[in-house]
Amino acid sequence: MARDRRDNYYWRAKDEGFRSRASYKLLQINEKHGVIKQGDTVVDLGAAPGGWLEVAKKLSEGRVVGVDLKKISPIEGVETIRGDITSDRTVEKILDMVGKAGADVVICDAAPNLSGNWSLDHARSIDLTTSALECARKILKPGGNFVVKVFQGDMFKGFLDEVRNNFTFTRSYSPHASRSQSAEIYVVGKKFLTAPLRRGDEFDIEIKELGSSGDGAVLVEGFVVFVKNVQVGDYVKIKIKDVKPNFAFADVIKVMEP
Fold first, then answer.
1. Total structural domains in the chain?
2. Closest Cα partner for 64 from 54, 73, 72?
3. Catalytic residue among 149, 191, 208, 239
4. Known binder of ligand: residue 46?
5. CATH no. for residue 147?
6. Same structural domain for residues 248 and 132?
7. In what order do the strands lie in the sheet with 202-206?
8. 96: annotated binding-site residue?
9. Whether the predicted model's global pTM rises above the 0.85 cut
10. Is 127 part of any known ligand binding site?
11. Would you state the pLDDT for residue 180?
């Protein structure tokens, strides 16, 4: 508490009526990456005490839903759910509130209970953020955005890669409002992918036509994939290297006999 009372963002939150200094983190993330826009439906996972809910409401002026195991004190214009984000029942409640089409944005500033053992706390953080990502995948609209807090450590890159597999744009970002001694960082995913393919997937295909740019154009599980350096009639094994909302790119990793 003594440290907080010397913190500029602590006093700004008091002066400007926010529940938490963490409010400024979301404001800065949004200023940098434009995650929330006016009219968006936003779901905040692990939302207590509500600092991010206040900011989300201010930024979107749309429907905002907060989810937490703890009770969240009322915020004007914000709906709350008391529940576990890993529970299908909680997911159903969220979709009942935001509509079956899903949310435009899912945010999560939750942190695990800290033990003081860094390896354990990092593992708990990754477990929590993975749960938030899995929940987001169930409730986001195609093209939706995602922000989650993560503690840095040896499992961070694996989690970042998992977010990359689900969004067109992925970045890590540390807002100025984060304390300099903190190991927290935020992962931002934009344009949620609902494609049946993911980076790294491999397929055996026959090139039957070329696209307007001269690349091979094939349908894989009903999804268009462009393949460079091939000709009509080639039989190849491809590896997906990038996925966009409406198409993907792949490299040839093996040429096969017809």
1. 2
2. 54
3. 149
4. no
5. 3.40.50.150
6. no
7. 202-206, 235-243, 248-256, 223-227, 216-220
8. no
9. no
10. no
11. 64
Residue 221 backbone phi and psi in degrees, to 5: 55, 40
- 115 and 221 in a single domain? The answer is no
98 assigned to some structural domain: yes
pLDDT at 12: 66
The 140-151 sheet, strands edge to edge: 78-82, 64-68, 42-45, 103-108, 140-151, 184-192, 167-173
CA–CA gap between residue 121 and residue 74 (Å, rounded): 30
**Domain that includes residue 170, residue range:** 2-192
**Measured at the alpha carbon of residue 93, what is the angle toward residues 110 and 123, in degrees to the nearest 5?**
25
Which two three-digit tokens encode residue 149?
A: 């807090």
For the domain that residue 248 is a member of, what is the CATH number? 2.40.50.140
Spans in the chain with pLDDT lower than 70: 1-6, 9-21, 179-181
Residues 96 and 140 in one domain: yes
Residue 149 annotated to the active site:
yes
| 186 and 218 together in one domain | no
CA distances from 32 to 25, 54, 83 (A): 11, 19, 31
State yes or no: 201 annotated in a binding site: no
The answer as to whether 178 is a domain residue is yes
